[in-house]
Amino acid sequence: MRVNLIVNGRPETVDNVWEGESLLYVLRERAGLPGSKNACEQGECGSCTVYLDGVPVCACLVAAGQAEGREVRTVEGLADGDRLDPIQEAFVECGAVQCGFCTPGLLVQAHDLLRRVPAPTDADIREALAGNLCRCTGYEKILSAVRLAAARGEGGRGGDDRE
Ligand code: FES
Ligand code: FES
């Protein structure tokens, strides 16, 4: 089957998609975008989180065919060229990245939170990131990074750039 979709603003056509192939596989193995990570493939860890038509989803749970004609934005698409998104900068500054396996999914979820809730409480942050598991950081530095990006008032660059 052929699947046409928009990925990070660019049209992509993928041929020979097999039945049951996931959006995550298409992104990583066919579209050359390995940022979204494949950790559990069961919707449990959040490391594969991407925007699908502006809503964060686990790309491992989305069949590639379900993405036909839709817009996908991955962690690679958060940056503006060489300029990192403020939430990406905050993760780096706060040391919220260790092995980095969870980071792409956390960044997409945190980016979405800051678009919806520019000044989140700690409870808001914890709830938004509850589906994203990290085995390394203990979460405190991740919370600090989201607080930092929010304090700078730069939630996802303006907060209203939903696809
Ligand atoms: S790889 Fe998709 S939720 Fe874990
Ligand atoms: S930094 Fe290693 S799993 Fe989060």
What does this 3D model show about the protein?
By secondary structure, the chain is of the alpha+beta class. It has 2 domains: 3-76, Ubiquitin-like (UB roll) (Roll); 86-151, [2Fe-2S]-binding domain (DNA polymerase, domain 1), CATH 1.10.150.120. It contains 5 helices and 5 strands; from the N terminus they run E-E-H-E-E-E-H-H-H-H. It has helices at residues 23-30, 86-94, 103-116, 122-128, 140-151; strands at 3-7, 10-14, 49-52, 55-58, 71-73. The protein has a 5-stranded mixed β-sheet with strand order 2-1-5-3-4, sandwiched between helices. Helix 2 crosses helix 5 (140-151). It is globular. The model has no long low-confidence stretch (mean pLDDT 94). One FE2/S2 (inorganic) cluster is lined by residues 97-102, 134-137. Residues 38-41, 43-48, 58, 60 line the site of one FE2/S2 (inorganic) cluster.
Secondary structure layout plus pairing:
Blueprint (H helix, E strand, L loop, with lengths): L2 E5 L2 E5 L8 H8 L18 E4 L2 E4 L12 E3 L12 H9 L8 H14 L5 H7 L11 H12 L12
Parallel strand pairs: 1-5
Antiparallel strand pairs: 1-2, 3-4, 3-5
Helix pairs in contact: 2-5
Bound molecules: FE2/S2 (inorganic) cluster (2 copies).
